[in-house]
Amino acid sequence: MSTTPRTIHAYATFAKGEEAKPWEYQSRPLGPEDVEIKISHCSICGSDLHTMDSGWSQTMYPCVVGHEIIGEVTLAGDQVKDMKVGDRVGVGAQVWACLNKFPDEPCKECAKGKDAYCRYHVGTYNSKYRKTDGAITYGGYADYIRVTHEYAFKIPDNIPSDVAAPLLCAGTTVFTPFKEVGIKPGDRVGIVGVGGLGHLGIQFAKAMGAAAVVAFSRSASKEQEIRRLGADEFVVYTDEKQAADASKSVDILLITADANNMPYTLFLSFLAVHGTVIMVGLPNDEIKFSPYPLVGKGLNFKGSAIGSIQDIKDMLELASKKNVRPVIQKLPMSKVNEGIQMVRNGTVRYRVVLEN
After folding, report:
1. Which domain holds residue 243?
2. In a shared domain, residues 25 and 140
């Protein structure tokens, strides 16, 4: 086993507004708990674009994005016992957490199995190993990646690699809050935004027992496709009559859309008394809404960030059993900028998957 750094060939952005360009960098040495993965597929997440554009905060350039990764283990550290060379695995939006392994610094989040919220959380890209060597992380628009083995997940045999990629972030992001809230028999679940996250939210809500799933979109252009994915009802929320008729129509509302200046007060009107709104979409601007629906209907407001190690395992198991499958469009990795533009333009149905 080689623990030495590897030259990794990637596509990086070097400044806000620039296209991704070929770039090489030296990986971290392979640690005893790490695995090296030869990347076969990486899908394009909306977070990639926000990061490339320094939309949420100042990005550390050069930046290699991509955190919906599938590939094959090519090296495994001496202490890795749960996977071996040749295993097909996926990597999501996180590559390291302390997992409460440091007695001098107990971690409440990791101790509770909430490692996505670890104080030393290391994201797959544009992040640093602050607790260890301080190295910067680079993502999946590349030919290889090295991560700690806990954050490499074996992919069920019945899910093809290209289709599996979006599950690692998009799938986890919508599954986890549904798991935490608990979809009860009789619950009606609404999904605002029917793109990369939303089309999976519809499928997971049905798989987890929702009595009905209502899709909310700005236009009717996707209605037939979304109904085929399992939506029972479709509401064009920019249509005043349709929006009014949808008042108090759902018990759980998952907001996946991340555009600026969205009508959040209108979205809250769709919730029934004591309903729960879940935020997973992250616009670049501050959100604004009236507090009256929250108080007047006794609403619960919940945020959710990706998912824990166990959440991802549970998500993959459910996707395997219930046939939850992303709808994808494939491009070669060399056409990464074409794929990014498809996401920017909103023309993709519903996830671009880059293939090495």
Report:
1. 171-303
2. yes
DSSP of 310-342: HHHHHHHHHHHHHT----EEEEEGGGHHHHHHH
Q: What tens digit of pLDDT does each residue of 24-50 get?
A: 999 999 999 999 999 999 999 999 999
End-to-end CA distance of the chain: 24
159 with 29, same domain?
A: yes
Q: What tokens were used for 330?
A: 């494939």
DSSP H helices, the chain, are 46-52, 108-111, 161-164, 170-181, 198-207, 223-228, 240-245, 264-269, 292-296, 309-322, 336-345
The amino acid present at 107, given as its one-letter code, is: C
119-136: pLDDT as tens digits: 999 999 999 999 999 999
Beta-sheet strands, E only, within the chain: 7-12, 21-26, 34-43, 69-76, 88-91, 94-96, 122-123, 144-148, 153-154, 188-192, 212-217, 233-236, 250-255, 271-279, 300-303, 328-332, 351-355
What is the tens place of the pLDDT at every residue in 259-281? 889 999 999 999 999 999 999 99
Q: Tokens 């999501």 appear where?
A: 92
Task: Look at the chain and report how many structural domains it folds into.
Answer: 2
**203 and 290 share a domain?**
yes
Judgement on whether residues 150 and 197 belong to the same structural domain of the protein: no
Measure the CA–CA gap between 219 and 169, rounded to whole angstroms: 26
Distance from C-alpha of 60 to C-alpha of 43, rounded to nearest angstrom: 21
Output the domain CATH number for residue 176. Answer: 3.40.50.720
